[in-house]
User: What shape does this take?
Amino acid sequence: MKKPVVVVGGIFLTVLAIRLILAFMIPEFTYESYFHLRQVEHILETGFPFYQDQLSYGGRELAFLPMFHYLAALFSLLLPVPLVAKILPNLLTALLVPITYLISKKVTEHGTGSFVAAFIAGFLPILYYTNGFVVNTLFLPLIFVVIYLYLNIEEGAKKSDPKLMRCIYIYAVIFFILCLTSPLAAIMLIGLGIYTLLSFMEGKKIYHEEVEVILFSIFLYVWVQFLFFKKSLLQEGVAFVWQNIPSTIIAQYFPKFSIGVALVLVSIIPFLAGAVVVYRSLFQLKNQKSFLLISLVLAASILTWLRLIRFRQSLAFFSVVLAVLFAVFYEDLELYLQKTKVSHLQKYLLPTTIFILLFSTVLPAINTARLQDLPSSEEAEAFVWIRDNTPLSTTVLATLDEGHLVTYYGKRKNLIDDRFMLVDDVETRFQSLTSLFTTKFRTEAIELAGKYNLEYFVLTPSAREKYQLKKEFPYITRRCFDTVYQNETAIFKLKCQLGPT
Assistant: This one.
């Protein structure tokens, strides 16, 4: 018993240490993180997240699930919020190591294969956005804990285990927390539906405890989502499903599946091994023990194809499942070698596997952390300048990604950010944003600025690169704009307005 604890604990601590080192090497967070930082700080001040935001879009209503923010706020009672934002997401993601080991051991009962699966889960490149203070870092460990508990419920129902009810109660609590964390808990429900169908097709018995758990999960999920997103559903109709994302950028949020990108972010070895296991389980061995995991992969794939889940979120979930399936692959490969004339090579299987994984997962993971899309410290300083040198009523122009920098560092109103839900004119605002960064006509820019009460225009190096600008906006003139801040980032104050001549 001590050996698994020592090995898995060692992998966990190694992964956590590497993730924290990478996170603290970079001072800033991903752009989306700043929305969640504001929510945590507000909870610490008032005890509640804010659903009425006076700064985003110049003032609007928000709709989101608050569990991640309350958890972070709880840790922030002991540590400063920026420190929690560095440590907590990486701690949660590192917990996938022991969770993956437990699921792999449940599916394969093969110790070495389960250790390798845990190692893979700790170094999946798609999970190495180490400076992302985002909900997905809580969602992933939670949903895999739910999967592990369901496997225990299935096993307990089969054996009439007296501890079954305790496991069901724990499942109910964790699934409730999952529902309060992310709408992506729907992956579990759809996966269970596909799993039930596959089991029926293969003649596998579904116990009444499993049916009750599935029905309970469906009703609980629907109730929680309706409670938090009822207004959004009634206001936006069908657009609610796609989070009210502007049609002009929906392809950016839900890109088509790319094998090349998937191989890089998941790592080629787990990807190919997972493909082999899925094929053998479904078409050759009819292996029922992998059906649930395969069903969950199919569920995530369907949601991705329907553009109901972002590609990277789907790939993150998919990659952890592949890590578990690698344990099945490793077990099958070991049994195959035992039956061949080269069975003596079996002792080299583990070191060879680890050596290959070091190059196919660890190095790409570190590279992913190095190439995160983050604002620079100089860009953050420009938004702090806005906070210290502009009136409280100021509205600031920045890119879509930088909208949260305006509200977090600048404490001022933005034109737009990536929280689209419950915004009536999101299409118009995004078109106006694009025009303000691309138009060459001063009258058009001033007209749009007047429409949204824009007073300050921020042009960061990231914005220049995105819109292929040189030093400043094409329509900037000394007559209508003052350059009030000049570093790598430039800030311009609008002086002119359109009116009767």
User: Anything to note?
Assistant: The mean pLDDT is 86. The first strand starts at residue 52 and ends at 53. The radius of gyration is 25 Å.
